[in-house]
């Protein structure tokens, strides 16, 4: 929540800290709350979380929408991050040398294996797509760049769950468990999730058919240091094209890409496989 001082128009600052522009600081706080929400949010809820009265908050949202930092649904009236915010985020990612290389690797794997390959990073909203190269044939449903996958009910999400510290994934895990309970759906126990995570960490590539996209999915984490994935690379093999020979070809490309990127990050390839706390 935005501090009461900011909500009243008097931003709080530490002693000796340079004076900033109050309206810009408040707008950044509003954007940060929208980003942390993980999905679209209504004016009333955003007003409650920011501490700004709706009329004042609306003026900020009008300006942020005008510049593409925020978008408003014409159907629901809800607010979410806009195209400009996405473009800035992706531009920042591309300035990281290893991430730039990772994006190039995605295209190379697709060209070599003809598989659909995706690059995901961890953000406040979960496993987030930053690059997608379509294979042949392409999947029937194509996710959009900037979209986030479920943590537990996607192969990519489970790989992040296995390699990230429990503290980083706890909030999203609770949110998904609560949503499943509210909808009357079953949700894996902590013990079963811990076993899944242990199995993922014990193998170079996590092969699964229990994923969002149809087909066989091979998922591999690229680590820059233990318990800190730079990204996760996901290769999708369409139904009927996931024989042992095809999987071996894709696996070879994924491992080569992982090794190259981890060397760029300075990760000790001879270090023991990282472990994390159970979820």
Automatic annotation (TrEMBL):
Q: Which residues form the HTH iclR-type domain?
A: 21-83
Any matching Pfam family: IclR_C
Is the Transcription keyword given for this protein? yes
* Gene3D superfamilies in the record: 3.30.450.40, Winged helix-like DNA-binding domain superfamily/Winged helix DNA-binding domain
| GO process terms (BP) | negative regulation of DNA-templated transcription
Q: Which residue numbers delimit the IclR-ED domain?
A: 84-267
InterPro entries from the UniProt entry: GAF-like_dom_sf (IPR029016), HTH_MetabolicPath_Reg (IPR050707), Tscrpt_reg_IclR_C (IPR014757), Tscrpt_reg_IclR_N (IPR005471), WH-like_DNA-bd_sf (IPR036388), WH_DNA-bd_sf (IPR036390)
Coiled-coil zones = none
Lineage, top-rank taxon, reads Bacteria
**Alphabetically ordered keywords of this record:** DNA-binding, Transcription, Transcription regulation
A molecular-function term among this protein's GO annotations: DNA-binding transcription factor activity
Q: What is this protein called?
A: IclR family transcriptional regulator
């Amino acid at each position: 929540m935005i501090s009461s001082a900011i909500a009243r128009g008097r931003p709080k600052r530490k002693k000796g800290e340079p004076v900033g522009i109050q309206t810009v600081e408040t707008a950044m706080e509003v954007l940060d709350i929208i980003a942390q929400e993980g999905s679209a949010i209504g004016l009333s809820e955003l007003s409650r979380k920011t501490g700004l009265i709706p009329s004042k908050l609306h003026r900020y949202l009008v300006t942020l929408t005008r510049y593409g930092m925020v978008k408003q649904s014409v159907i629901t009236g809800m607010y979410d991050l806009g195209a400009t915010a996405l473009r800035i985020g992706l531009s920042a990612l591309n300035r990281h040398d290893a991430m730039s290389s990772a994006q190039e690797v995605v295209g190379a794997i697709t060209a070599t294996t003809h598989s659909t390959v995706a690059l995901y990073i961890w953000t406040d909203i979960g496993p987030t797509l930053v690059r997608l190269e379509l294979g042949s044939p392409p999947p029937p449903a194509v996710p959009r760049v900037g979209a986030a996958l479920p943590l537990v009910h996607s192969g990519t999400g489970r790989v992040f769950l296995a390699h990230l510290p429990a503290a980083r994934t706890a909030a999203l895990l609770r949110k998904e468990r609560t949503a499943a309970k509210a909808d009357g759906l079953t949700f894996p126990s902590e013990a079963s999730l811990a076993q899944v995570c242990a199995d993922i960490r014990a193998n170079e590539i996590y092969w699964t058919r229990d994923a969002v996209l149809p087909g066989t999915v091979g998922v591999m984490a690229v680590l820059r240091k233990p318990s800190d994935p730079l990204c996760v690379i996901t290769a999708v093999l369409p139904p009927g094209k996931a024989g042992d020979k095809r999987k071996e070809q894709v696996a070879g490309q994924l491992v080569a890409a992982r090794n190259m990127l981890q060397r760029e990050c300075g990760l000790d390839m001879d270090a023991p496989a990282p472990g994390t706390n159970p979820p």
